Amino acid sequence: MYPGIELRLLRYAVAVAEELSFSRAAERLHISQPSLSKQIRELEESLDSKLFYRTKRDVAVTETGVLFVEEARKALLHSEQAANVVRSFRPSTHLQIGYSPYVNPDLIAAIWSFPETVLPDLTILLKSYFTRRQLSKLQDGKIDAALVMLPVMGADLVIVRTVAA
């Protein structure tokens, strides 16, 4: 038996701690509240320690829960970094770009023709998404770049402004 804890359960515990509500955490995680409660209860049993105090109206993190959630966040960050290392070193001849449906069509046409003239081995894949979806896909590593209409907020974004001539 593997002595570790599934990343899914770490995500669940972090969500409950951040939301201080099983129903809001379940909504955020896209699972049912009873399922989340059961998973957390089983996690607590496997750890032989309470992570959360529960009443009908309130959820609070126990002292042990605070320590667990802190370590869970670190583990989740490390798992994300491991995936990013693999993604960044994967040889790719594809560049996936999201673009806003409101971007100038001439710009899209110019991007389509770019690889043929400059990098013939590069395939550019363009997909239209609204800004919020593009940002989510960027964060998840599903696209490599995004053409959005400004303003866009995000502390971890590198925004390069261009002005159409």
Can you walk me through this structure?
With 165 residues, this protein is α/β, with parallel strands linked by helices. The protein has 2 domains: 7-87, Orthogonal Bundle (Arc Repressor Mutant, subunit A), CATH 1.10.10.10; 91-147, 3-Layer(aba) Sandwich (D-Maltodextrin-Binding Protein, domain 2), CATH 3.40.190. It is built from 6 helices and 5 strands; from the N terminus they run H-H-H-E-E-H-E-H-E-H-E. It has helices at residues 7-19, 22-29, 33-47, 63-89, 105-117, 131-140, and strands at 52-54, 59-61, 94-99, 123-128, 145-147. The chain has a 3-stranded parallel sheet with strand order 4-3-5, sandwiched between helices. The chain has a two-stranded antiparallel ribbon with strand order 1-2. A hairpin with a 4-residue loop joins strand 1 and strand 2. Helix 1 (7-19) packs across helix 2. The longest helix is centred in the middle third of the chain and has 27 residues, at 63-89.
What does this entry show, briefly?
The chain has 165 residues and is of the alpha/beta class. It has helices at residues 7-19, 22-29, 33-47, 63-89, 105-117, 131-140; strands spanning 52-54, 59-61, 94-99, 123-128, 145-147. It has two domains: 7-87, Winged helix-like DNA-binding domain superfamily/Winged helix DNA-binding domain (Arc Repressor Mutant, subunit A, Orthogonal Bundle), CATH 1.10.10.10; 91-147, D-Maltodextrin-Binding Protein, domain 2 (3-Layer(aba) Sandwich).
